[in-house]
Specification:
This protein has helices spanning 2-39, 42-53, 67-73, 115-126, 158-163, 174-194, 248-253, 258-274, 290-299, 309-314, 317-322, and strands at 63-65, 82-86, 89-95, 101-107, 136-140, 147-151, 199-200, 209-211, 217-219, 226-227. With 323 residues, it is of the alpha+beta class. The chain folds into two domains: 42-151, Phosphorylase Kinase, domain 1 (2-Layer Sandwich); 158-322, Transferase(Phosphotransferase), domain 1 (Orthogonal Bundle), CATH 1.10.510. The strands form three sheets. The protein has a six-stranded mixed sheet with strand order 1-5-6-4-3-2. The chain has a two-stranded antiparallel ribbon with strand order 7-10. Strand 2 and strand 3 form a beta hairpin. Helix 6 (174-194) packs antiparallel against helix 8.
Length: 323
C-alpha cells in the first residue's frame, strides 16, 4: 500500500501540470482566434449583419463561421475534398451541419486592407444577388487569412468544359456556348452597373466561370475583386489576374477598370470560338498568346482559319463578325 501512495504522489503533479498546460493552450488558442477575428474586421462585420437584419430585407443569409465549423465541413481540409487550385488559394468541397454543400476557399495570402474596408467589401459582396454570380454565403475570420464560403456549383468550369477530356462535343451545339457567354456577360454587366457600389472582378477567365447541372454560367472567384474606387487617383500597387487574360492598359497603368474586365471577357470569347487556350507555353513565342495570334491573323485576313470547325459549320459569317 505504501507504493500506491508514492505512485499517487509522483503522478499527481504530472497530471496537474498536464491539465494546466492543456488549459493554457486552450486559452491561448481562444485568444489567437479572437485576435484574428478582430484584426479581420469581425466586430464591424457583425454590426453590419445585425443592422441589415433589422431592416425589412432580412439577414441576407450571410454567416460568420467558426474555424471548427469549416474544419468539420471539409474533413480538416482533406486532399480528397479539393475542388481546385487557383492563384489566390485552394477551394474545398464542404458539407455543413444542415447538409448544405458549399465551396470553402482557403486563401494563400491577402492584401493589407484596412480592417473596416475588408469587412465592408465582404458584406457588399455578400449582397450580390444574381443568378449568374456565385453566391458568397459567409466567411471565417478566426484565422490569419480569412476563409470564404460560397455556394457549391456542381459541373466544373468553362475551362474544363472547353479544354477538358469531355469537351464541347457535337451534341452540345455552339448555341449553348453563346448562351454561356451571354450569361457571363450579364453577370459582369450587373457587377459593373447595377451593384452598389460597382464591383470589378479583376480575374475574368474561363476557369472562373462555373457551370451548374443545367450548364448555366456562374461567375466565380472574387479573389481579385475590387470595389470600384471613388477616387480616380487610386491605383493598385500590385497587378493581379492571370497571364493571357490581362488587359495591357492595366499592366501599364496598374489601374483596374471595368474595361479591364471587358478585355478579359474578350479573351474568353476567343477561347469559345477557337477552342484554344489563352496561353500556350509550347511552340514558338509568337504562337503562345491566343490574343496575339488572333490579332496577327486578322491583319492578314486569316482569322477564320483559327476558328473551331464546329463554330465554322454552325455560325454564319455575319454572326461571327458580329461577335
Amino acid at each position: 500500500m505504501p507504493y500506491s501512495g508514492v505512485s499517487v504522489g509522483v503522478f499527481l503533479p504530472f497530471f496537474m501540470s498536464f491539465w494546466l498546460y492543456l488549459g493554457l493552450q486552450k486559452r491561448r488558442l481562444i485568444r489567437t482566434k479572437q485576435k484574428f477575428f478582430e484584426l479581420n474586421g469581425g466586430v464591424f462585420l457583425q454590426q453590419q449583419i445585425r443592422n441589415y437584419s433589422d431592416t425589412s430585407k432580412g439577414g441576407g443569409g450571410f454567416k460568420i463561421f467558426s474555424k471548427e465549423e469549416l474544419e468539420k465541413a471539409t474533413n480538416n481540409f482533406a486532399a480528397g475534398r479539393v475542388l481546385g487550385h487557383g492563384g489566390h488559394g485552394i477551394v474545398y468541397k464542404g458539407v455543413l451541419e444542415d447538409k448544405t454543400v458549399v465551396a470553402v476557399k482557403k486563401s494563400k495570402t491577402t492584401e493589407e486592407v484596412p480592417t473596416k474596408e475588408f469587412a465592408r467589401e465582404m458584406f457588399i459582396l455578400s449582397q450580390i444577388n444574381h443568378k449568374n454570380v456565385v453566391k458568397l454565403l459567409g466567411c471565417c475570420l478566426e484565422v490569419e487569412v480569412p476563409m470564404l464560403v460560397y455556394e457549391f456549383v456542381s459541373n466544373g468550369t468553362l475551362y474544363h468544359y472547353i479544354h477538358g477530356s469531355r469537351g464541347l462535343d457535337s451534341d452540345t451545339g455552339f448555341d449553348t456556348c453563346l448562351r454561356i457567354a451571354v450569361e457571363a456577360a450579364e453577370a459582369l454587366a450587373y457587377m459593373h452597373s447595377s451593384a452598389s457600389p460597382p464591383i470589378l472582378h479583376g480575374d475574368v477567365k474561363t476557369a472562373n466561370i462555373l457551370l451548374d447541372d443545367k450548364l448555366t454560367a456562374k461567375v466565380s472567384d472574387f479573389g481579385a475583386s475590387k470595389l470600384a474606387p471613388t477616387d480616380e487617383a487610386k491605383m493598385a500597387t500590385l497587378v493581379q489576374g492571370t497571364c493571357g487574360y490581362l488587359d495591357p492598359e492595366y499592366l501599364m497603368t496598374c489601374r483596374l477598370t471595368d474595361k479591364s474586365d471587358v478585355y478579359s471577357f474578350g479573351v474568353v470569347l476567343l477561347e469559345l470560338l477557337t477552342r484554344k487556350k489563352a496561353l500556350y507555353f509550347d511552340g514558338p513565342e509568337e504562337d503562345r498568346s491566343l490574343v496575339l495570334c488572333f490579332m496577327m491573323a486578322v491583319k492578314v485576313g486569316q482569322h477564320q482559319d483559327l476558328l473551331d470547325s464546329q463554330v465554322r459549320d454552325e455560325m454564319t459569317i455575319e454572326a461571327l463578325e458580329e461577335i
